[in-house]
Amino acid sequence: MKTKILSFLSAAAIIFGGSACQDPYEFTPEHHDENILSLTASFYNDDSPSNSFAAEIDYATGIINIVFPYTYPPMSDSHLEENDLTHVRVQCNLENGSTVEPELTWLDLTKDHHITVTGLDGDKREYTITSEIRKSRECEITDFSINALGLSGAINAQTNVITLISADEIGEQNAEIIMSHGATISPDPRVTAINFDQEQEFTVTAQNGVDKRVYKTVKGEPTLIPSGANFTRATVRWAKKLTDYGYANGTGVTDVAAGLAVVGDYVIINKVGLADPIYVNAKTGEKVGTIDLSSIGSSAAGYLNNYRMTSDNNNNIVISNFSKDNGGTITVWKKKGLDGAIEQFISYAAGSNVGDQLSVVGDLDGDAIITATVNGSGLDFFRWVVTGGALQSQTPEKIHVTGYEGTCWGNADVAYVDPSNPNGDYITGAYMKFADEETANRGAAYVNGASNTITSKGSRVVSSNWVINAVDVIEFNHMKYAVHNSINTFTWGGDDNIYVYDLTTGDLATSPVDFGTSGLNFINNYGALLCGATGLARNGSDVKFSVAANGVYLYIYFLFANGYVGCVQVDCLDM
After folding, report:
1. Which of 163, 193, 219 is the last residue of a domain?
2. Per-residue pLDDT tens digits for 62-88
3. Which of 278, 314, 429, 512 is the most buried (most CB within 10 A)?
4. Which residues, 6 or more positions from 373, have their beta carbon under 8 angstroms from its beta carbon?
């Protein structure tokens, strides 16, 4: 590869040298022509979720062709070359009772390899393993916008029609495009201004130079479903390791990202205790710049003034300290957009364990509710109310939740359903046992805001092994949704997941999308465990909703501290 991404150890073949195929099971022999079900390959010393390459099996000819992508790692400027395939781990999945000879471990895939698969009935099949580095055939536009006018196109992936939502004249403009990696577009509106008041056609050609897709841009309004989101089309738009941004992968508090803020087209990834959290392109995850937060000062420990970060729904960044290290006072700052001045917003003698989590629902320039949980308090949190852009009091109301058991309200979060109603219902996520359960399963809860009593718990229960520390609520296309996370802080097990609930029925009975193993497959693919770090990952992890300016797309941003940060996209297009 042009960029070195692989390293190998001579002892690897000894360590991993056992057969990669299934062990035999006792059952009545049955003949299967297709006795080899699948075969995959992977590189050594690469923990990326994309490090698995499937083979195409032609049973008629006995050819097993392992396909490697030309671009690797994905979305990078590096590409694979033949000499990268000289030492690759190969594993197969056989019908029960079948065996393979010779055993598959590490192969030089620059050469062909011949294997014999024997079924439980004694039938033998000969196969030849080959390999291929293949350029992508993807030719899709995933984002089309005219930033000069603040226009974002709604893309119908079935009809290939991009609708620019505007009642005004657009004229000749350049466009910003995100499309399949390695693809090209003609004409290219990024370099040539196009008159978008008229219908235009663009041809996207895949990296392989063969596959093509023609898109048409039109001016008008897209057709939307009556309400809610199409979660069946939920996709991970991008995901990147925090170490790729220079965030250290360790267990010390200064190694941990702590919270996400969304400001327009950017996502800020907070960096505990440092004055230079980065912000990235919200649509691609590419780093754009840094933010100077030095004006908020620092505590004697040097880092805890910038302890948590979040944002409202109107480009206001919110930052808080941790009261334990500030004489029991929680201080909250706000900043309008990336370039606004930082101003102190709240200062309150809250006690020693406030600021581990901070949430804002609504608009700080309009109506909003700010909450901060009190660690170890017995289910208490503080609530500040903003009405018409004015903070009603520096002194918050202290709220006590009933319906949980125990007093360990650690790693918890609270988000209100209606930002203009402080006595309305709210959602909690906490490492707590529900009062009606014998076992300590965890999850989200829907709380009656008048009585502060739990009225329902989440239909998706989280194991007591995992930690919940972040909740968010949003309204999208006339419906409200809640999201929370669960985090694995151990060196074993499978978690690091997020959960979404439809709040339409006033409970948490409906979860419209599965992020687990039968859905978007988050578990063990984006957390700290995958990246070889655990420890304080629970404190920094976060989830955050954001709605695109055109109202067509809902974004769910996730952060697993010491792991990955990324974006899930859904839409409300009627396709």
Report:
1. 219
2. 999 999 999 999 888 899 999 999 999
3. 429
4. 354, 356, 357, 380, 381, 409, 412, 413, 414, 430
Paired with 319 in beta bridges are 309, 333
Contact 386, 370 (CB under 8 A): yes
Given a contact cutoff of 8 angstroms between Cβ atoms, the answer to whether 145 and 151 are in contact is yes
Q: Is position 211 within any domain? A: yes
Scanning 471-543, the segments in alpha helix (DSSP H) are 537-540
- In the chain, the largest separation of any two C-alpha atoms, in whole Å, equals 80
Assess if residue 4 is contained within a domain. Answer: no
CATH of the domain at 180: 2.60.40.2340
Structural domain count, the chain: 3
Give residue for tokens 């502060």: 452
Q: Please name which of 308, 302, 409 lies closest in space to residue 355, comparing C-alpha atoms.
A: 308
- Note whether 204 and 269 are same-domain residues: no
Please report the beta strands in 43-78, taking only residues with DSSP state E, as ranges in sequence order: 53-58, 63-69
Q: Read off the pLDDT of residues 356-382 as tens digits, 9 standing for 90 and up.
A: 889 999 999 999 999 999 887 667 899
Residues 276 and 400 in one domain: yes
- Range of the structural domain that residue 245 is part of: 230-571
CA distance 333 to 342: 7
269/276 Cα distance (integer angstroms): 10
Q: Which three-class secondary structure state does DSSP give residue 257?
A: strand
Q: How far is CA 206 from CA 8, 65, 140, 211, in A?
A: 32, 22, 8, 5
DSSP, res 539? H
574 and 225 in contact (C-beta within 8 Å)? yes
Question: Quick check: pTM over 0.85?
Answer: no
